[in-house]
Amino acid sequence: MRAMAPAPEVLADHTGKPRPVVAMPGLTYEQTRLGVAFHEAGHAVLSLAYGMRVITSEVIAWTDDTGRVTVTGNTAWQAQNTPPWHFAAQAAAGEIAHVTYLMVSGLWTPERAAAGAAVHDREHAIEVLAQAGYRLGRRHVPEGGKSWGMVRGMARRKAGHLWGEIRTVAHAMDARTVLTGDEIAALTGLVNARGGAA
Hints:
Structural class: alpha+beta
Number of helices: 7
Shape: globular
């Protein structure tokens, strides 16, 4: 764990705003950190499964001046010719993996599930798909498109098939803090694509 907050650019999301931090009511630091590792592992494993290149995936944790611990994460990737709905599903996979971790660990509560909602991942997927001419609705199915609920269903099915790989990566990330895409590929047997443009 870092003794101080990382630089603002490290904590910025795709829009330049501060990346969301995880505050899980009633969980220990270790449980919260592992939950974030599962979230990032969900993104990383589905990214590889869908042919994207993963650069790194990590848990970022630090203490502030008051001793409060803050936890977030980041998965850096490159995509080239990734089908838009696959991109959206990997975006949804972080939240799906986090909630699944809470459920299988006996830690799930409605409050914790709500705290783990990854609105930033949904908004990023909506923006990326819109640039490619695809319509992704937040709470409805737009004409010719899909809803976020439908995309979450796609991610849930894929993550279910890859749960062993997600679990392996999450525990390795929790132990080592940061994993390269090639390390994740070696742990899972999935291929980390070469090249590509973000």
